[in-house]
């Protein structure tokens, strides 16, 4: 995701924000990044693959693929943060524990 972050920073810099400017900068960026990615998919017909453990971020996708040891173990169309989180809770951790 470094390339995505670099592009997102450039967009925000044009709006007059700079990294470290005020406490709300990171929160603002975290709210704007999903919209930036969605616009890139819709307006520029780009495909974006994002790897994340954040259900809120995953909830913005058209589809979520759940991986375990590099293998797709489940998929979810039209995800929401709550649905992704509930599915993640069902995965086993190393040693057989549930997450």
Describe the structure in your own words.
The chain has about 100 residues and is of the alpha+beta class. It folds into two domains: about 1-45, no CATH class; about 50-99, no CATH class. Helix content is about 45%, strand content about 15%. Strands 1-2 form a two-stranded antiparallel ribbon. A hairpin with a 2-residue loop joins β1 (about 65-70) and β2. α1 (about 1-15) packs across α2 (about 25-45). The protein starts with a helix and ends in a 10-residue tail after the last helix.
Question: Nutshell version of this structure?
Answer:
The chain has 99 residues and is of the alpha+beta class. The protein contains four helices and two strands, in the order αααββα. The longest helix is centred in the middle third of the chain and has 20 residues.
Spans of at least 5 consecutive residues whose pLDDT stays below 50 are 1-15
Order of helices and strands: HHHEEH
Instruction: Report the biggest beta sheet as strand number plus sense, adding barrel if it closes.
Output: 2 strands, antiparallel
Strand arrangement across the biggest beta sheet: 1-2
End-to-end gap: 25 Å
The figure for the number of domains is 2
What overall geometry do the principal axes of the alpha carbons give? globular
Question: Measured on Cα atoms, how large is the radius of gyration?
Answer: 16 Å
What portion of the residues fall into strands of 2 or more residues?
Answer: 5-15%
Fraction of residues in helix: 40-55%
Mean pLDDT across every amino acid position:
77
Which structural class should the secondary elements be placed in? alpha+beta
How many strands? Answer: 2
Please work out how many helical segments DSSP would assign.
4
């Amino acid at each position: 995701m470094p390339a995505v972050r670099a592009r997102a920073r450039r967009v925000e810099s044009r709006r007059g924000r700079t990294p470290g400017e005020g406490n709300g900068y990171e929160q603002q960026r975290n709210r704007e990044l999903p919209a930036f990615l969605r616009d890139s998919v819709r307006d520029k017909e780009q495909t974006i693959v994002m790897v994340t453990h954040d259900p809120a971020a995953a909830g913005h996708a058209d589809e979520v693929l759940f991986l375990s040891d590099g293998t797709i173990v489940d998929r979810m169309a039209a995800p929401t943060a709550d649905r992704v989180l509930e599915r993640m809770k069902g995965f086993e951790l190393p040693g057989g524990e549930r997450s």
